[in-house]
Amino acid sequence: MERFALRDLIKWKNRKDRKPLLLYGARQVGKTWLVREFARQHYKQLVELNFFTNDALKQIFANNISPDFLIEQMELLFNVKIDPNTTLLFFDEIQESQRAMDALKAFNDLKPECHIIAAGSFLGVATARQPVGQVNHLTLYPMSFCEFLKAINRNKLAQIIQNCDTDMLTIPVREMMENYLKKYFYVGGMPKAVQKYVDTGNLEEVRTIQNNLLSEYKGDFSKHIEKKDAPRVRMLWDSIPVHLFKENKKFIYKNVKQGGRAAEFETAMQWLVDTGLIYKIYRTETVKIPLSMHFMKDYFKIYMADIGLFCAKAGIKPADILLQGKDIVSDMYGALAEQFVLQELKGVNISSLYYWGRESPSKAEIDFITDINGGYVVPIEVKSAKNTKAKSLKVYIAENKPKYAVRTSLNQFRTTDGLYDIPLYMISQVDKLLNK
């Protein structure tokens, strides 16, 4: 399978100021596969150290974290000769060893020619113990819709999206895009689920993979967090579909537990965010750059990392998606469309994502706003069907007069006085399309 993050790793490899790379991402998004594939294509040798399965490594790093000493120990342990220019050192599950984390700084200071990638499913939880300023960062997300299309050998459709070739979107092509989009809604972007679909085409087997992943995540709740917080994490995790299917998707703790309060669930919520299993999107009423200075910390929505896992968690069956009419019109599809847009935008590193809302003088809400490239704020209204009436977007445009506004739906691409109608399946290219 092709992962676009390989391009980011190549850029990292060629940086003159390259530092050890911390690779983040939720469990089972393909971090280990990505590093191994990167090494296969661009290095003569990969030396892989797993700090979860190999206790001997922890003992080595406990004694001395001098780069020369560690390289010599690795050469002895793995019976290899390490050439810093042609060998990739991979520190997997590095959060299991604070000394290994500290060694990244030593390598950066004393042996910067070494190529080192460190990853871990719970690396985000260990943020406070990381060598600030001594490492580069990259996050791997579930496979995008384009990556899914390439995996199922629909490369030309993926190229249309990547090239923003809206002239190729004839009615038959648009219908194909919509049909594959529905399949992606169900399969999602977890590599194991996608591979199962590629191998078998059997959606029931895909669901088995997804349910197994969800079970593994629940197992992690007991293994990797304090005992007192585990029940709260489970309650939050299980409440996600309830919140996304509500018309008002603002997260309310009382929907998790009767009488639930923020103070009771703060630690559990942050753990889910730090592990990459959920995204937390804050509300803002102020449309000023940078948006990060104006969000309201007590008002937010949450989404899952992967739309396929969301469907599995919500118990959505293939017929609920694939046997619907031509238009995606139900409330269920509205929730899926919003989850999809969030996931696609995250996947192309649009990290500054918020939503706009207000209660007075009249209630209005925009699904997402982002300061793309830091230059201007763009509102993005998500519509799951071809009916694109958007009262809130009209209110937002009238009040804030944005340079660009985006409405994403199943309609064809078009622009009208700064309002860009972008097909759902092309939303990952919003930055390019705004300059088309």
What is the element layout, followed by pairings?
Elements: H1 5-14, E1 21-24, H2 31-42, E2 45-50, H3 55-63, H4 67-78, E3 87-92, H5 98-110, E4 115-119, E5 136-139, H6 145-151, H7 155-162, H8 171-187, H9 191-200, H10 203-223, H11 230-244, H12 262-274, E6 278-284, E7 295-304, H13 307-314, H14 318-322, H15 331-347, E8 353-358, E9 364-372, E10 376-382, H16 391-400, E11 405-409, E12 414-416, E13 419-423, H17 430-433
Parallel strand pairs: 1-4, 1-5, 2-3, 3-4, 6-8, 10-11, 11-13
Antiparallel strand pairs: 6-7, 8-9, 9-10, 12-13
Helix pairs in contact: 1-2, 6-7, 8-13, 9-10, 10-13, 11-12
Short structural summary:
The chain is α/β, with parallel strands linked by helices and 436 residues long. The protein has 17 helices and 13 strands.
